[in-house]
Amino acid sequence: MRVKRSAAATDPGRRRRHNEDAYVCEPPLFAVADGIGGAQAGELASRLAATALQEDSGPDGGDPRRHVDALIQEANRRVYERQTQDAAASGMGTTITVALVSGDIVWIGHVGDSRAYRVRGGELDQLTEDHSLVAELVRSGKLSPEEAETHPQRSVVTRALGTDPNVDVDTFEIEAKPGDLFLICSDGLTTMVDDETILGEIDRNRDDLRATAKALMRAANRSGGEDNITVVFFELEAGEQQQADEHTLALPPQQEQLASDEDTLDEFDGVKPIAVEEETPRARDRDRRHPLRRGFVFLTLVLVVLIACGFAVWGIWRSHFVGAEADGHLAVYQGIPWNVVGHVRLYRTVYESPLLASQLSEPERMKLFDHSLVTKSSALSEVHRYEREIGR
To answer: Over the stretch 22-37, which tens digit does the pLDDT of each residue have?
Structure first.
């Protein structure tokens, strides 16, 4: 099996000034890294990881599984050493999802919540399992998939490169067939568009992978573009892999990527004009006949808003829960774990722990994050207990 063609694209999205994603698109090796730790640190972490892969991407003649694991361990070592030696980079990390084509097998290495998919026979299959807080809560039955989509801490990962000297890597093999199309992407795509939309864009642009990549960027940006968006595609065909495949399409370097793609970044992209109906005398008469109805509807809406505000205030002052900050640190919050329209949070941080969520085992995270610790004292007591146990 060999790579017939490939393409990659990245975009900062509509809400981020910096792009903390990085990718590798060098057949037979492909990868996406999504940085954690803020604009500069996250960008540095993902670039360090991608560079580590690129510098040692050739086949080692041994076990491909071990080779993929070794690549990711080396990337982890570089990020960990940098963040422990450089105060400005302290706390940084990155997700990474790697694919290595070896004969009739595609080897996947995975840490974090970036994803790998395969398209075969008109179906899109998710190959990786998210290492994230909400994914664990869904798997344990504490959250429904629908609740996870809007959970305020859905971006908190429970496993990442750079947080420890060694990292636990999910490594597995996928048996490939001619015509298989693989997609690796950051969560900036999957949190904005669903699988049906991804498959639809792929079907419409299958003959041009670059167009497919750009179409997915536009779809994510239309849905809000709340995070950086990166996609890497590669398609397989029968035959032996060559060092330089003339069918492989690679886009320009990431810093030049999509800078001039106005159709991708145009904030009015996909916005339909609003039709304005001319007011008629009959319409004016109808409006005048129902002033009481309009007033009743208005008062009802005001009452609903006041009740909601009262409930929110009560929740903020009386309720607490344990969660994690965007950088992965455990935290105790006052309020209720909801976001409302405009990303307004109905909670505030009252304590941030030096512990990372990824330092706890999955059962420990399930116990902390099930929202059963509703008082401030109980939440703080449990977090402090883990700090003492793990800090020893």
So the answer is: 999 999 999 999 998 7
- Asked whether the bond before 253 is cis by omega within 30 degrees of 0, the reply is no
From residue 258, how far is each of 18, 131, 216, 268, 340 by CA, in Å?
A: 14, 29, 13, 16, 32
Count of CB atoms situated within 10 Å of the CB of 131? 21
Q: Is 378 exposed, middle or buried (0-12, 13-18, 19+ CB in 10 A)?
A: middle
Q: Phi/psi at 96 (nearest 5 deg)? A: -160, 140
CA dihedral angle for residue 138, residue 118, residue 57, residue 190, rounded to 10 degrees: -50
Return the pLDDT at 250.
37
Give the integer Cα–Cα distance in Å for 113 and 133.
Answer: 10
Q: Starting at the edge strand that comes first in sequence, how are the strands of the sheet with 2-11 ordered?
A: 2-11, 229-237, 181-185, 115-120, 123-126
Q: Could you tell me if 259 and 207 are in contact, meaning their C-beta atoms sit under 8 angstroms apart?
A: no
CB-based burial of residue 286 (10 Å sphere; 0-12 exposed, 13-18 middle, 19+ buried)?
exposed
pLDDT digits (tens, 9 = 90+) for 133-164: 888 888 888 888 877 777 767 778 889 999 88
Look at residues 196, 190, 185, 131 and name the one whose alpha carbon lies nearest to residue 158: 131
In the chain, domain spans:
2-265, 281-307, 319-391
DSSP per position, 309-331: HHHHHHHHHH-EEEEE-TTSEEE
How far apart CA 231 and CA 31 sit, in angstroms, is 9
Architecture in CATH for domain 2-265: 4-Layer Sandwich (3.60)
Cα–Cα distance, 50 to 72 (Å, whole number): 10
pLDDT in tens, 344-388: 566 788 888 887 777 777 777 777 777 676 788 888 888 888 888
Where helices occur in the chain by DSSP H, the ranges are 39-55, 64-85, 133-139, 145-150, 187-190, 195-204, 209-222, 262-265, 281-289, 291-318, 362-368, 376-391
Compute CA distances 56 → 8, 51, 53, 71, 277, whole Å. Answer: 20, 9, 5, 7, 63
pTM of the predicted structure, to 2 decimals:
0.71
Q: What's the DSSP call for residue 254?
A: G
Q: Compute how many other C-beta atoms are within 10 angstroms of the C-beta atom of residue 232.
A: 27
Q: What distance in Å separates the CA atoms of residue 265 and residue 295, rounded to the nearest whole number?
A: 42
